[in-house]
Design brief:
single chain, about 475 residues, alpha+beta, Glutamine Phosphoribosylpyrophosphate, subunit 1, domain 1, Rossmann fold, six-stranded antiparallel β-sheet, 15 helices, binds iron/sulfur cluster
C-alpha cells in the first residue's frame, strides 16, 4: 500500500521528515523516498528498502538535505517523490493509492499534448508522475488536484509541494486517512501524515483530520482548506484491522482500542451463538492478532497468554522474499514457541484475517507437534472473497488463491468459480457460508473455527457503518 508524510517548518525539516517517513515502514516493503525544498531547489533521495530498513538507507542523505519543506514516502510500487517542472513552477509529489484506468489516462494525455512519460524498470508508468501530469493541466494546484481526482478510477491520496507550502489531498472517498498536526514554538510548524502515530514522538499534536476529497494547504504558519470535504466516505476497514499501526487514530478512533473492542465482540458472538469453547488460554497470532486476542480474553474471562513469541531484532518487516516457500520458512523462524504454554493445553488462537492460510496451517501443525491438546481458531474479520481494487495492497495471494475462494472451488467442483454464487458464501450464517467455514476448519487442522460477522466487525470500529469500505468481504462498492 505505502505511506506518506510531509512537513513545513520554521526550521530545518530533514530530521523530522526522516523519522516521520520511517514510521510508515510497516505500510510498504519496496522503496522509500524523501525530497526537501530549500526555497530554490529540491534535494531528493530514493532507495530500495527491500533488504534493509529505511533508516539505514537514508542516514547518509540527511546531512545533504537542507530546507524547511519536505515530503517523504514508503512505496510498494513507484519510485517517489516525483519532481516535475510545470507552468505552475516546480512541483514535488508523493502519492498513495491505485489507478485502475491508467492506460485511458495516458492515452488521453498523450493525444492532448503530453509527449512522453518515464517508463519504470518494470515496464509500467509511474502513478505519481501521472498524477503530477494531470495536475499540471490546470492553472493552479487546487484545480489540478480536483481535476486529477475526477479522472482517476481507484483512489489517490497525495502531498504536493508547491507555492511555498504543501497541498495535502485525501482521496475522493477517504479510503486512506490523512491528518495534520502542529508543533508550537519558534522552530515549529505543521506536518501531515497518513499514520497519526508517526508524529507523536516528534512533538506534534493533531489539529485536523482531512475529510474525503478535502485539500488543505500548509505553510509553516497556517493551514487552510482550499477544497472542502465531501460527505460520502468509504474508509478502508482493513487498515483498522490489520495494516494500520496500533497507536494511530483514524476518524478519531484509536486502532489498538478498536482491536480490543473487536475481540470483545467476537467473544460475545461466540457466547450468543453457543460456539464458546472451554480452553486454557486465548492467544493472538503475532503481531496483529494479539490486540484482538486481548479483547477476546478480557470479555470471556479466559487468561491471555503468548505461546508463540516473535523474534524481531534481526527480522525487519521489510524483508519479504518473493518465493512463497521462503516466506513461509521465515514466518516460522520468526515465531518461537513456549513449551509450557503449549504442551497439553487447549488454545484459542485469534488472527486478524486469513488470506491464503498456508502460514496459519504451518503454525497449527507446529503447535500440535509441541503437544497442544486442542486448537480453536477465531478470525477478526469475515472470509476475504474479493481483491481490493482501491489501494495497492500487497497481499500474499491473488483473489483466486485465497483460502475462501479455493474452498468454494473445492465445494463446487470445476476449475472456475461461478461469481453469482460467491455472494451466498459471503453471507454470514447461510448454508454455503457454514460449509465453507467447516472445510476451511478442516484444512487448518482446527477443532473449531469461527469468523467475526461483518456486522460485528463494522460495529466494533465505532464509526457509521456506511462510511466503511466492505468490498474485500462482500464485493459491495
Ligand atoms: S477493498 Fe478491502 S483493502 Fe481495499 S479499501 Fe476496501 S476494505 Fe480496504
Amino acid at each position: 500500500m505505502g505511506g506518506i508524510f510531509g512537513l513545513c517548518l520554521h526550521d530545518e525539516c530533514a530530521t523530522d521528515l526522516f523519522f516521520g517517513t520511517d514510521y510508515h515502514s510497516h505500510l510498504g516493503t519496496r522503496r522509500g523516498g524523501m525530497a526537501v525544498f530549500d526555497g530554490k531547489h529540491y534535494n531528493r533521495a530514493i532507495h530500495n528498502i527491500e533488504n534493509s530498513p529505511f533508516r539505514t538507507k537514508f542516514e547518509d542523505d540527511l546531512s545533504e538535505m537542507h530546507g524547511f519543506i519536505g515530503i517523504g514516502c514508503i512505496s510498494d510500487s513507484n519510485p517517489q517523490p516525483v519532481i516535475i517542472d510545470s507552468k505552475m513552477g516546480v512541483l514535488a509529489a508523493v502519492t498513495v493509492g491505485r489507478i485502475n484506468n491508467k492506460q485511458d489516462i495516458v492515452r488521453h494525455l498523450m493525444s492532448d499534448g503530453n509527449s512522453y512519460f518515464t517508463e519504470m524498470s518494470g515496464g509500467g508508468i509511474n502513478d505519481t508522475e501521472l498524477v503530477a501530469a494531470l495536475i499540471s493541466r490546470k492553472d493552479n494546484v487546487p484545480d489540478g488536484i480536483r481535476y486529477a481526482q475526477s479522472q482517476i478510477d481507484g483512489s489517490m491520496t497525495m502531498l504536493i509541494s508547491a507555492d511555498g507550502g504543501i497541498y495535502a489531498a485525501r482521496d475522493r472517498l477517504g479510503r486512506t486517512p490523512l491528518s495534520i498536526a502542529k508543533k508550537d514554538g519558534e522552530k515549529g510548524g505543521y506536518c501531515v501524515s497518513l499514520e497519526s502515530s508517526a508524529y507523536i514522538n516528534l512533538g506534534y499534536k493533531t489539529c485536523h483530520t482531512l475529510g474525503p476529497g478535502e485539500v488543505v494547504f500548509l505553510t509553516p504558519d497556517k493551514m487552510e482548506t482550499v477544497v472542502a470535504p465531501s460527505k460520502e466516505m468509504r474508509m478502508c476497514t482493513f487498515l483498522f484491522f490489520f495494516y494500520g499501526f496500533p497507536t494511530s487514530d483514524y476518524e478519531g478512533v484509536n486502532v489498538e482500542e478498536m482491536r480490543y473492542r473487536c475481540g470483545k465482540s467476537m467473544a460475545a458472538e461466540d457466547k450468543q451463538a453457543g460456539s464458546a469453547v472451554e480452553v486454557d488460554f486465548v492467544a493472538g497470532i503475532p503481531d496483529s492478532g494479539t490486540p484482538h486476542a486481548i479483547g477476546y480474553a478480557n470479555e470471556s474471562k479466559i487468561p491471555f497468554a503468548r505461546p508463540l513469541v516473535k523474534y524481531t531484532p534481526t527480522w525487519p518487516r521489510s524483508f519479504m522474499p518473493r518465493d512463497q516457500s521462503v516466506r513461509n520458512l521465515i514466518a516460522r523462524m520468526k515465531l518461537i514457541p513456549v513449551d509450557s504454554l503449549i504442551h497439553n493445553k487447549r488454545l484459542l488462537l485469534v488472527d486478524d484475517s486469513i488470506v491464503r492460510g498456508t502460514q496459519l496451517r504451518g503454525i497449527m501443525d507446529e503447535l500440535l507437534s509441541y503437544g497442544a491438546k486442542e486448537l480453536h481458531g477465531r478470525v477478526a474479520c469475515p472470509p476475504i472473497l474479493y481483491d481490493c481494487k482501491y489501494l495497492n495492497f500487497t497481499r500474499t495471494a491473488r483473489e483466486n488463491e485465497t483460502i475462501s475462494r479455493q474452498t468454494i472451488l473445492d465445494l463446487e467442483g470445476g476449475s472456475q468459480i461461478n461469481e453469482n454464487h460467491v455472494c451466498q458464501y459471503a453471507q454470514f450464517g447461510t448454508k454455503q457460508y457454514r460449509n465453507m467455514v467447516e472445510l476451511i476448519r478442516k484444512k487448518l487442522n482446527l477443532s473449531t473455527l469461527e469468523y467475526h460477522s461483518l456486522d460485528g466487525m463494522l460495529d466494533s470500529v465505532g464509526i457509521e457503518k456506511c462510511k466503511l469500505c466492505t468490498y474485500c468481504w462482500n464485493g459491495k462498492e
